[in-house]
Design brief:
The chain is α/β, with parallel strands linked by helices. The protein contains 10 helices and 14 strands. The longest helix is centred in the last third of the chain and has 33 residues, at 260-292.
């Protein structure tokens, strides 16, 4: 399976489909030398977390995608989608060699079995992050990506049953980094250390890049659903009601929407998990500092549906001591052809993955050039 397919129309890209977050998001971009415009963009909730082995979840996703295609003014049906974080295995590995043949052999005999994968049948990719220090020794850091073949086949069948033509499959970290890369074209940016944090429904993904290259990826199984569960348990409400309370809290910037006691109860219910997540993200910073001994990041950019969780952002400022901003993946794009007037997320940070998928095929990608395909 190829990570990259040639597009038939060089001016209008494929549909970027983010199935890894709820709501599902679809976006299509067109570009010329001087600007990128949004051809169409739609989003839709689905009944439950997508699980292609679960018929109810599968049909819910297919119905949602078909509805967005019918509603939106998408050009064609070619699509680039991403594998969900819970189905994709990602791990940073430290090797003694940079020789690709030796790396292939280690994958086959050691790493694939460790992750429950068959090196000959399943899909395995890797990125070489670069030289790192282990004590006084120099090692080679490699980021491993793996997924069982059956899961990918199921994913492709789901897309086809929804009326789409898959032309590419990507990983969430690659899509996120691509959506951020457009601003890193100047010569002085080539050694800039950037940190992206995507806080979704099930996972928080941390990506550290240097210039145009991803050098670190970490999946943390703490995100929005766990926060909703915390609030539901503490306040004795349903998970759905907990989600609504958290949404009110995010919008209650001046304390006029929620009662003070309810507001504090929601914050208290989330505090332990938020502190745990903040510590996990800070450990990623520490790992980078020790491993690569490079320039310290001075800013963290947040994306995803939970990026505007102010309680989390405050906790991270305490733990990290760096500037924190919310991603604006559509900033500078021509939005006149898409209806974004009713969007509540001013920065539209939750669109970062979909935008990165829609950009696949533009000449600004890390993953296509740096992700090795095993033959």
């Amino acid at each position: 399976m190829k990570f990259m397919f040639n597009l038939r129309n060089k001016n209008i890209g494929p549909i970027g489909l983010d199935l890894g977050h709820n709501p599902i998001k679809m976006i299509q971009l067109a570009w010329s030398d001087d600007k990128i415009c949004v051809v169409a963009a739609e989003e839709a909730d689905y009944v439950r977390d997508m699980n292609v082995a679960d018929e109810v979840g599968r049909e819910s996703v297919i119905s949602a995608v078909k509805g967005m295609l019918a509603k939106g003014s998408f050009s064609g049906r070619e699509v680039v989608s991403c594998l969900s974080n819970d189905s994709l295995k990602i791990k940073s590995l430290r090797l003694d060699t940079a020789d690709t043949q030796q790396i292939e052999q280690q994958f086959k005999t050691e790493f694939a079995p460790r992750f429950g994968l068959d090196a000959d049948a399943d899909e395995i990719r890797y990125m070489i992050a670069g030289n790192v220090y282990q004590g006084d020794e120099m090692k080679n850091e490699v980021i491993f990506f793996g997924m069982d073949k059956a899961g990918i086949v199921q994913h492709l069948h789901l897309l086809e049953d929804a009326g789409l033509t898959p032309v590419g499959i990507d990983a969430v970290p690659c899509a996120l980094f691509r959506s951020f890369q457009a601003s890193l074209r100047r010569q002085e940016d080539q050694q800039l250390v950037s940190v992206l944090v995507d806080v979704g429904s099930l996972f928080t993904t941390v990506i550290i890049g240097r210039g145009q290259e991803i050098i670190f990826v970490k999946q943390i199984p703490i995100a929005g659903e766990r926060l909703n569960a915390d609030v539901a348990s503490k306040l004795e409400v349903t998970v759905e009601e907990a989600g609504l309370l958290r949404a009110k809290l995010k919008n209650d910037t001046d304390g006029s929407i929620m009662e003070a006691s309810t507001r504090q109860a929601v914050i208290d219910a989330m505090s332990r998990t938020i502190e745990e997540l903040a510590k996990e993200i800070s450990l990623c910073f520490r790992y980078y500092a020790v491993t690569f001994r490079g320039q310290r990041p001075t800013e963290v950019v947040f994306a995803g549906g939970e990026a505007d969780e102010t309680t989390l952002l405050k906790a991270l400022k305490r733990h990290l001591g760096v500037s924190i901003t919310i991603a604006g993946p559509l900033r500078g794009f021509d939005l006149s052809h898409a209806d974004f007037k009713d969007r509540h997320d001013a920065e539209m940070s939750k669109w970062a993955v979909a935008v990165g998928l829609g950009m696949k095929g533009m000449d600004m990608s890390t993953c296509e050039s740096e992700c090795y395909e095993r033959n």
